[in-house]
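User: Here's a structure from my thesis project, written as structure tokens. My advisor, Dr. K., wants to see whether a designed sequence matches the one we expressed. Can you design one independently, without my sequence as a hint?
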């Protein structure tokens, strides 16, 4: 019994440290996206902002329990060859015909999945299904934020191929937790996206182009820092956990010159745009009668077959 308890504690801490953007950042990104919505939408979303915020991390919670979930968070574009991020088919059916569904799922379906979930949100708006709107909108925010992360676009997702293991959670969790209070995350009004599937791919391209800096700057900084200054220990869930030191984190953040802030802002803007586009495509249904809060929804049931794919980042 004691062994099981400690295993559950370890799993919870691992998820909090390793989830894409981290639990803290995913929640903040979803929450801030609400404030860019137009008057016709913001009343409904603000009334349910706690649900949108807290359930931003549901896809990460499902990662190890729901078949077919893991591959929705990333795309290892470089698994398909040099410059593949610019050449891969943008539409799912064309991609399946070119590579087979099993191959695509093995290396991640992040951008195709983001568009698929957008279509689901459009249908939920059209049906005025309040529970579905909130659940799908929260999920969509998570998936869009994920494809804006450089390390979600590569086989070297945790620096394991370049002797930089741990860089995944460092970039998308440690940095936002320590430094994002100083970010300017105002992104203006949501805009309609005429081709949201292509917008998803633009996010992947932008993220992938930042990958070189993410890896190279950490390497350069590591050469300057002795190990005892690169890492420190903090208490998490009553357990002493090794983390990147505040000094190393700040120095790396300065070298990146606002990169993490830029990707957070892009995530927030893109989420608001996708929510708004789904609502427009549904015919702009009146949401005024659906402003009361709702309880947390049950998790979705697994439906896809199991595909052997990589761990999220570790």
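Assistant: Designed independently from the structure alone:
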């Amino acid at each position: 019994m004691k062994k099981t308890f400690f295993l559950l504690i370890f799993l919870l801490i691992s998820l909090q440290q390793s989830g894409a953007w981290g639990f803290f950042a995913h929640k903040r990104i979803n929450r801030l996206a609400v404030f860019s919505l137009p008057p016709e939408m913001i009343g409904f979303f603000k009334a349910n902002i706690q649900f949108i915020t807290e359930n931003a991390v549901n896809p990460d919670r499902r990662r190890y329990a729901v078949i077919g979930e893991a591959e929705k968070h990333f795309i290892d574009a470089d698994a398909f060859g040099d410059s593949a991020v610019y050449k891969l088919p943008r539409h799912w059916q064309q991609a399946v015909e070119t590579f087979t569904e099993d191959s695509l799922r093995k290396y991640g379906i992040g951008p195709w999945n983001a568009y698929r979930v957008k279509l689901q949100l459009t249908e939920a708006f059209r049906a005025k299904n309040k529970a579905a709107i909130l659940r799908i909108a929260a999920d969509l925010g998570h998936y869009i934020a994920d494809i804006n992360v450089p390390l979600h676009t590569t086989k070297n997702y945790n620096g394991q191929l370049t002797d930089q293991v741990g860089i995944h959670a460092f970039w998308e969790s440690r940095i936002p937790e320590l430094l994002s209070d100083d970010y300017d995350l105002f992104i203006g009004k949501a805009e309609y996206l005429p081709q949201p599937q292509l917008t998803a791919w633009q996010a992947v391209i932008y993220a992938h182009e930042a990958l070189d800096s993410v890896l190279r700057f950490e390497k350069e900084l590591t050469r300057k820092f002795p190990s005892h200054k690169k890492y420190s220990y903090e208490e998490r869930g009553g357990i002493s956990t090794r983390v990147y030191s505040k000094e190393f984190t700040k120095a790396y953040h300065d070298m990146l010159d606002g990169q993490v802030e830029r990707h957070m802002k892009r995530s927030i803007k893109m989420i608001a745009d996708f929510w708004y586009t789904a609502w427009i495509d549904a015919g702009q249904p009146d949401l005024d009668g659906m402003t009361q809060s709702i309880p947390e929804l049950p998790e979705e049931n697994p439906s896809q077959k199991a595909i052997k794919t990589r761990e999220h980042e570790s």
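When you compare it with your expressed construct, this may help: Residues 1-19, 294-303 have pLDDT under 50 and may be disordered.
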